[in-house]
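Dear Dr. H.,

I hope your travels went smoothly. While you were away I took the liberty of generating a structure for the chain from your last submission, since the lab meeting agenda had it listed for discussion. I wanted you to have the full record in hand beforehand rather than looking at slides cold. The sequence, exactly as received, is reproduced here:
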Amino acid sequence: MVTEPRPRKPEWLRVRAPGGPNYLRLRGLMREQRLHTVCEEARCPNVGECWEAGTATFMILGDVCTRACSFCAITTGRPAALDYEEPVRVAEAAAQLGLRHAVVTSVNRDDTPDGGAKVFAETIRAIRRLSPGTSVEVLIPDFLGNWEALATVMAAQPEILNHNTETVPRLYPAIRHKARYERTLELLERAKQLDPGTVTKTGVMLGLGETRAELREVMADLRMVEVDVLTVGQYLRPVNSPKHPEVARYVTPAEFDEIRDEALTLGFRHVESGPLVRSSYHAEQQVPAGARRPRSDGPVALPLLDP
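The corresponding predicted structure, in token form, is as follows:
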């Protein structure tokens, strides 16, 4: 039996190993504050570029995920208890870094009633208290369709609400454990309805076996629920294991450019499309002018929530 050769990683996906002075400073700060970043946990190829520029994506709710999505490198298992002091540590780190824009994401915490929504909300508020001029983006899980949990996050008024679509509907059973394509669309739609002043955002990966026609349908669906910002990047196999699918193909930079132009034609306000693009890549450039302040044009914020 003749097997097809695996596609070789092209030149445009090679990046320099991290290690500059800002990278080392930021890594030291994360260790000092006992914080996690998705940059490290998910083995992002842009960690050197972003950290050297003084930006990072904080990962809250621990570093163990309750799901086992086949595209992801984050550890799966039984997480520790939620840390309700974590929001203040994240805010202190954001203040020390002098961030104009803070990105906060998390593992899935399906073991908790609200999926960690209260901790997300308090992290947003803590950043606002310590860094009033910092805009906040949250990349949230789907909370298993718990819309009260979504409302808790939205009440804290993040400037950007991100939830990743990841791939086309046909590939969800193999790629996104426990997720549902329709639930993703509903979450993004409800977020916009809860606070029309929040920018909604999502991302997809290419190279998992999707077709351009399927991608076009997904982009059209996202515009139907008024998603503002789209990121499109190359899937890279995080580790060589049976759990993680091999790369079906490497999409060329020229095709990523075509996809960006197509998405902009559909009406997205901002599109990042390229081989190394990830959810928070150039995130600070996606905040509307004048939005870097606590807004008062949306829903009234909930009071601080106890564990």
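Two observations you may find useful: The CA atoms of residues 220 and 266 lie 7 Å apart. Confidence is low (pLDDT under 50) at residues 296-307.

With kind regards,
E. W.
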